[in-house]
Amino acid sequence: MKFRASELPLTPLSLKDTISIRTGDWKYVEPFYEEKLSPCISACPVGTDVTSCIALLAKEEFQEAAKLWKESNPFPGVCGRVCPRFCERECLRQHLGGSITIHLLERFIGDLNVDIQNKSQKTGKKMAVIGSGPAGLSCAYHLSRKGYKVTLFEKEKLLGGLLRAIPSYRLPPQIVDKEIEGILKQGIDIEINKESGKDFSLEELKQQFDAICIATGLKERKLNIRGTELFNVWSGREFLKLNNDIQNKKITVIGGGDTAIDAARVALRKGSEVFVFYRRRREDMPANPYEVEEAIEEGVNIKYLSEPLRIEKCSSFLRLFLKKKADENSEFFIDTDGVVMAVGEEREMLNNEIKDTFLCGDILTQKGTVSHAIGSGKETASLIHKYFFGEETSITLPAVVESEDLNLDYFKEEYPPEEKKRDMSQRIKDFDEIYQGLTREEVIIKEATRCFGCGKCSGCDNCYVFCPDAAIFKQDGKYIIDYDHCKGCGICMEECPRGVISMRRTEK
Ligand SMILES: Cc1cc2nc3c(=O)[nH]c(=O)nc-3n(C[C@H](O)[C@H](O)[C@H](O)COP(=O)(O)OP(=O)(O)OC[C@H]3O[C@@H](n4cnc5c(N)ncnc54)[C@H](O)[C@@H]3O)c2cc1C
């Protein structure tokens, strides 16, 4: 049916155009851009900007990615191999194909061996750091990059602390050497074979330095049972340092942490038959679950809920007595050629009442991971800087992206590359590294481009394209909301793949 204009009912007609009518005044909620923290960054004990580094890798800007990573963590090669991967557990990609294998990208970055320069302005302050494990080295690195003159004291001949105890099939020593070299290039002085409390006292150091940081780690816990003093009964760390011939021997390990599992796998590689006794259940073991899995696969026998009672010397072997947990009458024994006691660590009593003294790493946090030690060293360096020079620019931490903040319609289901592992029959014959890293192509094509980039604007234009009121503009590569005409419909937020747009109440 057709009408003539004169037959139509009267309708209100605006004499102005839509630009001059402030339709935006109608809204009571409005969108705003807010870059958020991705869950991987929030879970990382070092706080590395993982998403920005991965975005650089995806653009093949490898050097830039490595430099950015090393701004916060000077040990990507180490952490890429041994960190328990807190980041990957939180990665939102796990809902669409599988978490990004961040450890492999980190390892790739580490293996590029990119050094970063120290361009800091000197503060004139002198710091002593005692202990050269990952915590002490990280603290020294960050202090040096803030302009402090740092001297690192280490009681051993080699720097690296417990990184040196991790067997080479998981962490080749040359990776540790290379990354320590990069740290020392920041301008750190070292004093090796110098033990505090023996070769010097804290009071003496106080005369020469403005402050001291103690990063001496934890000492091994001893089991209070009969027979631990016998020949061929070792502590976990002791055993891992030994260059002993235990071909065709039977070795028994007590414990369920990283040290116990490493001792067992080392013994296995040296040609022994290996038994591990742990007092709790498998799911309670502090060691990394995939390493327990691999140890079993390699032939280590693990018995759970078993507690050691005593060790006795028999003619040419040792007899280890145990009992089933919570059952006094369940005593049993195993005959063995050697016993490794790897039953955890404890803190040494410390008098840290001394003024201008700080702590970092395991001795402070007792977290027992390399990345926590590195993060703690970094945090203590910031604390020391704040102590001398007041507040560092305070940073309010942004919100963490949650799964529902993302629009998964914009991402395809894609799977991580398979991790290349040496065949079991080969790997138990030597101490060569078990896992291989990713190739350049795998980094760019498979992994880095799979990252959602949670919380970071990638400039995809969705907000700009979908806004029904054309109330979003682009200026110098940035999006600007025209609040005079935005009606607060929230479509931009809905269509943002990465959760960068949030809504807030409009102030009237
Ligand atoms: C066998 C083994 C396997 C491990 N595997 C893993 C793993 O896969 N992943 C993981 O994240 N973590 C692992 N860990 C734990 C990790 O190595 C530690 O949590 C981490 O090294 C702690 O760092 P730190 O710097 O606080 O202390 P440490 O690494 O213990 O370093 C302390 C340093 O201080 C020095 N020192 C001590 N006393 C003095 C003194 N009086 N004067 C001067 N110097 C002193 C020591 O010689 C040492 O170099 C493993 C540990 C072991 C033993």
Can you give a write-up of this model?
With 508 residues, the chain is of the alpha/beta class. It has 4 domains: 16-35 and 457-505, Alpha-Beta Plaits; 39-115 and 406-450, Alpha-helical ferredoxin (Fumarate Reductase Iron-sulfur Protein, Chain B, domain 2); 126-218 and 356-389, 3-Layer(bba) Sandwich (FAD/NAD(P)-binding domain), CATH 3.50.50.60; 233-346, FAD/NAD(P)-binding domain (3-Layer(bba) Sandwich). 30% of the residues lie in helices and 16% in strands. It has 18 helices and 19 strands. It has helices at residues 39-43, 50-58, 62-72, 76-82, 86-90, 102-111, 134-145, 173-184, 202-208, 236-241, 258-269, 289-298, 362-365, 370-389, 424-427, 440-447, 462-466, 491-495; strands spanning 29-33, 126-130, 149-153, 189-191, 211-214, 219-220, 233-235, 250-254, 273-277, 301-303, 306-313, 318-324, 332-336, 338-341, 345-346, 357-359, 472-475, 478-481, 501-505. The strands form 6 sheets. The chain has a 5-stranded parallel β-sheet with strand order 4-3-2-5-16, sandwiched between helices. A 5-stranded parallel β-sheet has the order 7-14-8-9-10. A 3-stranded antiparallel β-sheet has the order 11-12-13, with no helix packed on it. Strand 11 (306-313) and strand 12 (318-324) form a beta hairpin. Helix 7 (134-145) runs parallel beside helix 14. Bound molecules: flavin-adenine dinucleotide. Residues 82-84, 130-136, 153-156, 161-163, 165-166, 195-197, 215-217, 237, 240, 258-259, 262, 361-363, 368-371, 373 line the site of flavin-adenine dinucleotide.
